[in-house]
Automatic annotation (TrEMBL):
Name of the protein in question: Branched-chain amino acid ABC transporter permease
Pfam families found in the cross-reference section: BPD_transp_2
Keywords: Cell membrane, Membrane, Transmembrane, Transmembrane helix
Entry annotated with the keyword Transmembrane: yes
Membrane topology of this protein: Multi-pass membrane protein
Transmembrane segments: 12-40, 47-70, 82-101, 108-128, 157-175, 208-230, 242-267, 279-299
Primary location class: membrane
UniProt-annotated location(s): Cell membrane
PANTHER family linked to this entry: ABC TRANSPORTER ATP-BINDING PROTEIN (PTHR30482:SF17), HIGH-AFFINITY BRANCHED-CHAIN AMINO ACID TRANSPORT SYSTEM PERMEASE (PTHR30482)
Length: 323
């Protein structure tokens, strides 16, 4: 394990991120989005980086979370804690079902199944417009309240989301460092050998799906409350693509790489959209560069720079000053 991937370092980096974002960003909305997508991308990383499953179904769970927040708060006035719980439970249940069907195939067929499920849920959301609002989405999703005060301010809601981020990130660290997490890595490296040893490979994959879906749905609910709307686009397969791109950019070898990937993507998109209306072209060029030259993601680059700095420091210390 790399020194930067130890539990203490990862938790310190997560805390530092929460503290630094308000200092370097003027937009509380953007800072909050980074933390929300950092959770979602870390959940995707549990599938891609630790289990070796390239899923295009993450947008399903994200969209379901937004609709849970939209329906329960705008139509039934359900308390926010219960809304969050419902989003987590529904995300886990649907992810279990999607995972159970999808893992019956491997490779490109697994990818196609998750993409097919993503399209199916999108058209279901579009068809049942009485529930989802159709193209218009569900408007007027309220922010949560604490001590009788609504978290209308961008930085007050940022603090609220930051607590969720720190808890979820810590829980994922525990999961990935546990026997369960090590077994997922064994399945990723050699599924046949893991099955021959006696591990219930399919069960472990489904459990990874359930955890990832629960966290992603929670992120979707938090995002709906952030922007005040549960849009149809949230369950579109493009959302799955965006989450995967963030995961790959950050690097799938470390959970904190998910934070780096989410932050880099969102800040870059926000900056380029101001510079040029066709900013997606510039973003595409940046992504191509990352894919060609940083195959372990941006976090892999950070690790190489760290190792190089430590090696140079050790060499200079060993040689000592010239006499």
């Amino acid at each position: 394990m790399h020194v930067l991937d130890t539990v203490k370092v990862q938790i310190f980096l997560a805390l530092a991120t929460v503290v630094i974002l308000p200092l370097v960003l003027s937009s509380g909305i953007l800072a909050t989005e980074i933390l929300i997508y950092a959770m979602v991308v870390a959940a995707c990383n549990l599938l891609l980086g630790y289990t070796g499953l390239l899923s295009f179904g993450q947008g399903i769970f994200f969209g379901l979370g937004t609709y849970v927040a939209g329906v329960l708060t705008t139509r039934w006035q359900v308390p926010v804690p219960l809304v969050m719980l419902c989003a987590v439970v529904l995300g886990a249940v649907v992810a279990t079902a999607v995972g159970w069907f999808s893992i019956r195939r491997q490779g490109v067929y697994f990818v196609m199944l998750t993409l097919a499920f993503s399209q199916m849920f999108y058209f279901l959301a579009y068809t049942f417009s009485d529930i989802t609002g159709g193209d218009n989405g569900l408007l007027g999703v309220p922010r949560p309240q604490l001590m009788g005060h609504t978290l209308d301010g961008p930085w007050s809601y940022y603090t609220y989301v930051a607590l969720f981020f720190l808890v979820i990130f810590s829980l994922l660290l525990v999961v990935t460092r546990s026997t369960f997490g090590r077994t997922l890595l064994a399945i990723r490296e050699n599924e046949g050998r893991a099955a021959a040893i006696g591990f219930p490979v399919r069960l472990f994959k489904i459990e990874a799906f359930a955890i990832s879906g629960a966290i992603t749905a929670l992120g979707g609910a938090l995002h709906a409350m952030l922007i005040g709307i549960a849009p149809l686009e949230s369950i579109n397969y493009h959302t799955s693509e965006m989450i995967l791109v963030m995961t790959i950019i950050g690097g799938s070898t470390s959970l904190f790489g998910s934070v780096v990937g989410a932050g880099f993507y969102l800040v870059l998109a926000d900056t380029l959209s101001v510079i040029w209306p066709r900013w997606l072209l510039l973003l595409g060029l940046v992504l191509v560069a990352v894919a060609l030259f940083f195959q372990r993601g941006l976090w892999g680059l950070v690790e190489r720079l760290w190792d190089g700095t430590i090696a140079r420091f050790a060499t200079s210390k060993k040689e000592g000053p010239d006499v």
